[in-house]
Design a protein that fits this description.
heterodimer; A: about 150 residues; mainly beta; OB fold (Dihydrolipoamide Acetyltransferase, E2P); four-stranded antiparallel sheet; 10 strands; about 35% strand; elongated; B: about 450 residues; alpha+beta; Rossmann fold; Dna Ligase, domain 1; D-amino Acid Aminotransferase, Chain A, domain 1; 3 domains; eight-stranded antiparallel sheet; five-stranded parallel sheet; about 25% strand; globular
Chain lengths: ~150, ~450
């Protein structure tokens, strides 16, 4: 590949909304990646909500997005505050922020929700233990979908 | 053709859209609030996404979550339905910028039609009769007095950003004008964050008659005749019928041509309604509703045209399946809006049926009507060979309709459709107010 072509590709990639591109031509391979964008929003205050609104319906629990999880009385759910794509890690090849069984301090990042090209990072509102990770990396989560089951420590 | 549609609405209009999509093989994704998890459209849609908590401003008006839901669920188009964000130009723009088709007119057209003064100017420029009024907004009492003198009393003060009767005041003499102007402007400011008001000649007890239009992006603009929506309470429509008892074939032709010329001139796409006031055989342009309307089934029953289907075809960039010279106006159709007067659980629900009866609703026995949204819970539509036959059928259908567990306006609708003045067909928009004063409803 000519340097000229590479520069053109880099320029085009920079302007694009893509975060990563692998370009193959004549047996050559170029991989371009952008650094994970810094969260643009200040992370909204986000604690497991003692729901501001009463559950709409009793059968709400049967809603497919509310994964049926057994949980003790000492655990609670952290739910999605917006509709977005759920990411467990800051970059595709980075390790997840948290794993099942981890105990983390207040203020540590838990996940990223991407909505309208903005990366919103969410942090622990208190010291907690991750009992279960309930959403799948890279998938859409709806408003109120449980992301983590956690226990206060 | 659209493959996959996000429906950013709820209730009977969401059900209505899902039904047509199913017939057309379009996948539906319903965006809903937490209060609507158990709603009929959630059950009917192919998929559903919760976009927020019960209050509409955080769910059905939450542009970010709605657009994200559309993109992430793999939709290529978004239908805004009726109300909520259906006439929000900013929303239409965001939907387009996210790469989805907005099922409705272009944002610029929505913007223009949302400004009642600009809309009226556009109509006037295209040679459509408008109600005599101030040439623009009135800024002060002196301008208003001068404008009112030249128009002649009574005049009506209206909000430029208005709708639903808010910011509207009738003035019968110059002595009242100054005070009314201030009140109307304050009311408009509160309701629409825009205190701009203008003046119009007040037409005493006119008919409210509107023309249904569908337009594609290939120059096809077709009208489906008129709907008479004269039976209103506080500017809220309660009964709609077609044809109007006061519209002659000649008047229909003129109104239809005017409505088509207006929307063609504006480069309008999709379903829309041009509203007129009719008095003494003359029609005056009032405004355009830049969306499909609640009462669209009346025109569907009269013409046999599925308006939602044509809307989706037009949004896809394809040509409408209908042509003006093939539109056949059938005999008669009438719709009664069934409104809830309280929220709660529907304990018993019996739906009218039989020949010539259509029911559009999202109720079912056991459903909990949430307190957060519009009070419309069902639309009962019937057809007939004549107005008399249609209204007898409506009386029969209303008598079959049973909704228990919540309070509704069914009894009041029964009285209206059996009222001698309504049956006579000769009345104006003041009809219901007068009847209510008599205390017979």
């Amino acid at each position: 590949m000519e340097l000229k072509e590479l520069y053109a590709l880099m320029e085009r990639f920079e302007k694009s909304g893509l975060s990563e591109i692998v370009f193959k031509k004549d047996g050559e391979e170029v991989c371009l990646k952008k650094a994970a964008p810094a969260p643009i929003f200040a992370p909204p205050v986000y604690a497991p909500q003692p729901a501001a609104y009463p559950p709409a319906h009793q059968s709400h629990e049967a809603h497919p997005s509310d994964a049926p999880v057994k949980h003790g009385t000492d655990t609670e759910f952290i739910r999605a505050p917006l509709v977005g794509t759920f990411y467990r890690a800051p970059a595709p090849d980075a390790p997840p922020f948290v794993e099942k069984g981890d105990t983390i301090k207040k203020g540590k990042p838990l996940c990223i929700l991407e909505a309208m090209k903005l990366m919103n990072e969410y942090q622990a509102e208190f010291d907690l233990e991750i009992v279960a990770v309930l959403a799948d990396n890279g998938n859409m989560v709806e408003f109120g979908a449980p992301l983590f089951e956690v226990r206060r420590v | 053709m659209i493959q996959s549609l996000l429906i950013a609405n709820r209730g009977e209009i969401a059900v209505r859209i899902i039904r047509t999509c199913r017939e057309m093989g379009i996948r539906t994704v319903l965006a809903h609030s937490q209060a609507d998890t158990d709603s009929l459209p959630v059950h009917m849609a192919d998929e559903h996404v919760c976009v927020g908590p019960p209050p509409a401003r955080e769910s059905y008006l939450n542009i970010r979550n709605l657009v994200t839901a559309g993109v992430l669920s793999g939709c290529d188009a978004l239908h805004p339905g009726v109300g909520f964000l259906a006439e929000n130009a900013g929303f239409a723009r965001d939907v387009g910028e996210a790469g989805l088709i907005f099922v409705g007119p272009d944002p610029e057209v929505i913007e223009l039609l949302g400004d009642k003064i600009r809309a009226k100017h556009s109509a006037k420029d295209l040679g459509i009769p408008v109600i005599p009024g101030s040439s623009g907004s009135v800024e002060n009492a002196r301008d208003a007095l001068a404008a009112a003198e030249s128009i002649g009393y009574p005049v009506i003060v209206k909000a430029a950003a208005g709708g639903g009767g808010k910011g509207m005041r009738i003035v019968r003499s110059s002595s009242e004008l100054g005070d009314v102007l201030v009140i109307a402007s304050q009311e408009a400011e509160k309701a629409f964050s825009d205190g701009t008001v203008y003046l119009e000649k007040y037409l005493e007890n006119p008919r409210h008659v509107e023309i249904q239009i569908i337009a594609d992006r290939k120059g096809g603009v077709v009208h489906l005749g008129e709907r008479d929506c004269t039976v209103q309470q506080n500017h809220q429509k309660l009964i709609e019928e077609s044809p109007s008892p006061v519209v002659t074939p000649d008047l229909r032709a003129r109104m239809g041509e005017d409505a088509v010329r207006l929307l063609r001139g504006l480069g309008y796409t999709g379903a829309g309604t041009v509203e007129f006031l009719v008095l003494d055989g003359k029609h005056y342009f009032m405004e355009v509703n830049a969306r499909v309307q609640v009462e669209h089934p009346v025109s569907e029953m009269v013409t046999g045209v599925d308006i939602i289907r044509q809307q989706l075809i037009a949004a896809s960039g394809e040509a409408l399946e209908i042509r003006q010279d093939r539109v056949r106006l059938g005999a008669y159709a009438v719709e009664c809006r069934i409104n809830a007067r309280s929220a709660g659980r529907v304990t018993r629900f019996m739906v009218p049926g039989g020949f010539g009866v259509r029911m559009d609703t999202f109720l079912y026995a056991g459903y909990h009507v949430p307190p957060w949204y519009d009070h419309l819970v069902a639309k009962l539509i019937v057809t007939g060979q004549t107005r008399a036959e249609g209204l007898r059928r409506m009386q029969r259908a209303l008598s079959e309709l049973v909704i228990e567990g919540i309070a509704t306006n069914i009894e009041s609708q029964k009285k209206i459709v059996a009222h001698p003045v309504f049956l006579s067909g000769t009345y104006g928009t003041g009809f219901l107010g007068e009847v209510m004063k008599e205390g017979s409803l």
